[in-house]
Amino acid sequence: MADAGITGSKRSALRFAGYDRPMTFRTDYDDGTAQLVNISTSGCAIHRATPELEVEQKILLTFELDRPSNPLNIRAVVIRIDGGNIALQFQHIDENIKRRIVRFFAKETRRQKSELKSTS
């Protein structure tokens, strides 16, 4: 499972842990599944992708956050594959979706930290 929390980097957006959240994706030819490693408002990292993806491949990500009846659908392109991790850059992401990502994962991070404190 990915570490809980928010990480800083040389990127322009905060990156949140993905908590191995399941997601689906669609390529031009296949439907697939993966686990979310981390996410920001500009992209994400996934692993355990089936079928395998290739650099520069365009996909449509779908995953549930706060409202299962209203999943996020985000167009992305594979920018790097490093071992089992796949880096994706979001394409033309709407500001409302960016806000949903930040709100949900900030809340999830607080919840995870609270759970860690209560078990210590």
From TrEMBL:
Top-level taxon of the source organism: Bacteria
MF (Gene Ontology): cyclic-di-GMP binding
Start and end residues of each PilZ domain: 10-106
A Pfam family assignment: PilZ
InterPro entries: PilZ_domain
Name the record gives this protein: PilZ domain-containing protein
